[in-house]
């Protein structure tokens, strides 16, 4: 039987993960012949960790998802630095920028999204390119441009107080830049946070050297001087970093006549309006998915790999409940579920604790005794416990105050990461449980690095790394036979 010809347009986090999932199910490439097109010249990288590159805590090599020999080892025809120009859905062909043509049995769109630049005077030059002193924060190349343009100690303005904008702001502030965040809404991260937490977060950022201007818009960029705001004031800035949102990359889909709204419309089989074309990640629009986050993309990649390899023809994508974490040094923030609920809503129990002077805020929304939503700032123990409850759908402890303070354990709970139940979800991005980590350890993956390679735990947003390390340390103490079965120590260093 001839292998099914599958072409993937996009070699970002979604496309790379899909290729990995296909080869996990079809390692010998007998069922699926895989071609992956990447418009960027370098290997796939973890976009979630780019704020660490900007901050200087991670090297560019540290965020790579694949090494230079990955494609050859995995029997993937990988073509980087090559964009798709046109899709011929009738002929089932993809026309390439170099003039080549690829036929396909199934086409997977994983084109992601692009940074949106607001129509502020002076952000673009006469040709429509970014003006001097302006950068966006979306790709690895964007990081390189920002670091090259940011003169040491020079003031920087960040347009946008969402998740990505705040991560960029914290990274640049950590490098010694005076940073001002300009946000047109009355509080930061309004999609994930309520007003109360937004205010506490702004105060916390202020202590870290980040000024916040709310409820104002940038009306003009003056090169070398900064931004003029809608209230007439100015923000001095040698560099303006735009992080005002993203737009799905749907140009190929639109030109091919596929159904598109904010993204390429897909059903539970990730199928577009053409039965031979699928879409995953930021470019796809599914009813149960929040855009811009890695976990839905990777869940979709697993489902689609099941379908296209035949490993599970009944697989369906039903949506992903997400936990949003702000990855910024000295700021511990998690938001999950439905947080925009008033305290007087009849079918919900809403609790709120505020401690602005210490940078702490916690809001908990319960329905039928279970966590329906939460915001936790500055209380990592509480965030960990509440997230466990949310993931497991377990009843919340009766002592709600202890839960908000991080002093309560889930039912049958854990006093430390090592004491988590086997079913506890450790890595949300990759759906890795504690039990899977233990199994991998006993199979020889002894150490953080080995557990990461085997299970992918901590390779997504990175927020579970402490828990993974805690479990590895516990296993090294309690299962010394397994520990010596390999030359890798619990810290991930070679023992020999």
From TrEMBL:
Superkingdom of this protein's organism: Bacteria
Pathways involved: Nitrogen metabolism; nitrate reduction (assimilation)
Molecular function terms, GO-annotated: iron-sulfur cluster binding; metal ion binding; oxidoreductase activity
Keyword presence, Repeat: no
Domain NADH-rubredoxin oxidoreductase C-terminal: 323-389
Domain FAD/NAD(P)-binding: from-to ranges: 5-301
Domain BFD-like [2Fe-2S]-binding: 425-471
TM annotation in the entry: none
Cofactors that this protein relies on: [4Fe-4S] cluster; siroheme; FAD
Keywords: FAD, Flavoprotein, Heme, Iron, Iron-sulfur, Metal-binding, Oxidoreductase
Family, per entry: Belongs to the nitrite and sulfite reductase 4Fe-4S domain family.
The protein's name in its UniProt record: Assimilatory nitrate reductase electron transfer subunit
Organism of origin: Streptoalloteichus hindustanus
């Amino acid at each position: 039987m001839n292998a099914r010809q599958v072409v993937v347009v996009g070699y970002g986090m979604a496309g790379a993960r899909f290729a990995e999932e296909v080869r996990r199910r079809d390692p010998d490439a007998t069922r699926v012949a895989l071609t992956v097109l990447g418009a960027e010249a370098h290997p796939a990288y973890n976009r979630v960790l780019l704020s660490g590159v900007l901050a200087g805590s991670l090297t560019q090599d540290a965020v790579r998802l694949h090494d230079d020999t990955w494609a050859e080892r995995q029997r993937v025809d990988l073509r980087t630095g090559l964009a798709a120009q046109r899709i011929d859905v009738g002929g089932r062909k993809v026309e390439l920028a170099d003039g080549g043509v690829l036929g396909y049995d199934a086409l997977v769109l994983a084109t992601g999204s692009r940074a949106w630049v607001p129509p502020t005077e002076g952000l673009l030059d006469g040709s429509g390119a970014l003006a001097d002193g302006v950068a966006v924060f979306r790709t690895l190349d964007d990081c390189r441009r920002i670091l090259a343009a940011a003169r040491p100690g020079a003031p920087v303005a960040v347009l946008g107080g969402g998740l990505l904008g705040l991560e960029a702001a914290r990274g640049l502030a950590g490098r010694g830049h005076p940073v001002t965040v300009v946000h047109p809404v009355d509080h930061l991260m309004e999609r994930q946070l309520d007003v109360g937490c937004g205010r506490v977060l702004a105060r916390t950022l202020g202590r870290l050297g980040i000024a916040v201007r709310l409820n104002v818009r940038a009306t003009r960029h003056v090169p070398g001087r900064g931004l003029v705001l809608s209230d007439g004031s100015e923000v001095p800035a040698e560099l303006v970093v735009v992080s005002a949102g993203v737009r799905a990359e749907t140009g190929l889909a639109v030109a091919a006549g596929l159904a598109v709204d904010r993204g390429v419309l897909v059903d539970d089989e990730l199928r577009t309006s053409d039965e031979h074309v699928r879409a995953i990640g930021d470019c796809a629009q599914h009813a149960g998915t929040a855009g811009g986050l890695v976990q839905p993309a990777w869940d979709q990649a697993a489902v689609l790999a099941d379908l296209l390899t035949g490993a599970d023809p009944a697989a369906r994508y039903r949506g992903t409940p997400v936990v949003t974490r702000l990855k910024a040094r000295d700021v511990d923030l998690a938001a999950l579920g439905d947080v925009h609920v008033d305290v007087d809503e009849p079918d919900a129990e809403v609790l709120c604790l505020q401690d602005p002077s210490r940078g702490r805020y916690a809001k908990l929304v319960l329905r039928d005794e279970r966590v329906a939503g939460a915001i936790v700032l500055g209380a990592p123990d509480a965030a960990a416990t509440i997230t466990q409850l949310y993931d497991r759908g377990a009843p919340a402890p009766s002592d709600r105050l202890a839960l908000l303070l991080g002093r309560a354990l889930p039912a049958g709970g854990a006093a430390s990461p090592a004491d988590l139940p086997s079913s506890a979800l450790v890595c949300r991005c990759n759906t890795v449980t504690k039990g899977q980590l233990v199994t991998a350890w006993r199979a020889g993956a002894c150490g953080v690095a080995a557990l990461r390679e085997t299970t992918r735990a901590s390779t997504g947003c990175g927020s579970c790394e402490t828990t993974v390390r805690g479990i590895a340390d516990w296993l090294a103490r309690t299962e010394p036979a397994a520990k010596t079965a390999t030359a890798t120590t619990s810290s991930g260093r070679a023992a020999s």
